[in-house]
């Protein structure tokens, strides 16, 4: 069943908007250029990162883990792993957006002259949050 507020778990990404998508989401935690949001209806968590230019293109990615997991991974390296994962997820998921939201992704790609998570070449290994959490918990 899909949440009638944030549309999780069917939806896993929100594309860039001038304002945050018109959904009722509350702040759960704040990190280094990254925010964790919570849907008050279904309790699902969303990770928000603002991208250039002017940090004005915010993308949300569904966080399928706990708030504590998010804080733990954030604090590993002052959010660089979270940022890397977020960029990879945007790249993987943006094509699943509805047409009008895909258009705002395209205009972001144009505005940013390639400096966006979709067009920057990503040679790094895919970040697997699930195994990362397990590894930290068992170490
Ligand atoms: Zn929801």
Summarize the topology.
Layout: E1 13-14, E2 26-30, E3 35-38, E4 45-51, E5 57-63, H1 67-76, H2 80-93, H3 99-111, H4 129-138
Antiparallel strand pairs: 1-5, 2-3, 3-4, 4-5
This protein binds zinc ion (ZN).
Keywords for this entry:
139 residues; alpha+beta; 5-stranded antiparallel beta sheet; binds zinc ion
Q: How would you characterize this protein structure?
A:
There is one protein chain. With about 140 residues, this protein is α+β, with helices and mostly antiparallel strands. It has one domain (about 15-139). It has four helices and five strands. The chain has a five-stranded antiparallel beta sheet, with helices on one face. Strand 4 (about 45-50) and strand 5 (about 55-65) form a beta hairpin. The longest helix has 14 residues, at about 80-95. It is globular. The mean pLDDT is about 95. It binds zinc ion. Zinc ion binds next to loops.
List low-confidence stretches: none
Mind describing the biggest β-sheet? Answer: 5 strands, antiparallel
What small molecules does the structure contain?
zinc ion
The rough form would be described as: globular
Order of helices and strands: EEEEEHHHH
Placed side by side, the strands forming the largest sheet appear as 1-5-4-3-2
- Proportion of beta-strand residues: 15-25%
Mean pLDDT: 93
Count every beta strand, where a strand is a DSSP E run of 2 or more residues.
Answer: 5
Radius of gyration: 15 Å
By secondary-structure content and strand pairing, the structural class works out as: alpha+beta
What is the tally of helical segments? Answer: 4
Gap from first CA to last CA:
36 Å
Number of domains: 1
Summarize the amount of helix as a percent range. Answer: 25-40%
